[in-house]
Amino acid sequence: MNTTGKDAGTNVGATACSPEKRRRTIRVWCDGCYDMVHYGHSNQLRQAKAMGDYLIVGVHTDGEISQHKGPPVFTQDERYKMVRAIKWVDEIVEGAPYVTTLETLDKYTSDFCVHGGEFAEILEWVGRF
């Protein structure tokens, strides 16, 4: 996969998740703090969107971020607006739990979770990572 330059990652997920191979809408869950949104966040969400049809992005509250990482720079309302403005995002979940669980995926009828490795083990075990 090309990860640099003008066409960086434009073909991500095109083979395994191509629309021709699907019979229904594939819903993808991705969550995070998204404090001080930057190119890496946008690129992560672009790649997540390429893995399905509909991208749901959970954004953590100020309280969750403070508890796990320290105080955020931007307020949760500012972060909700920033993430909502990213063109690959179809829906945001305000106040998403810090730990992604199967219950969260089921609540938002998500088929897959795109996330960093810290929560991968359980989701991989059930085939949803």
From TrEMBL:
Its EC number is 2.7.7.14. Residues 29-121 form the Cytidyltransferase-like domain. It holds the Pfam family CTP_transf_like. One of its GO terms (cellular component) is cytoplasm. InterPro entries: Cyt_trans-like, Ect1/PCYT2, Rossmann-like_a/b/a_fold. The keyword Nucleotidyltransferase applies. Gene3D superfamilies: HUPs. The keyword Lipoprotein does not apply. Keywords: Lipid biosynthesis, Lipid metabolism, Nucleotidyltransferase, Phospholipid biosynthesis, Phospholipid metabolism, Transferase. Pathway: Phospholipid metabolism; phosphatidylethanolamine biosynthesis; phosphatidylethanolamine from ethanolamine: step 2/3; Lipid metabolism. GO terms for molecular function: ethanolamine-phosphate cytidylyltransferase activity. One of its GO terms (biological process) is phosphatidylethanolamine biosynthetic process. Belongs to the cytidylyltransferase family. This is ethanolamine-phosphate cytidylyltransferase.
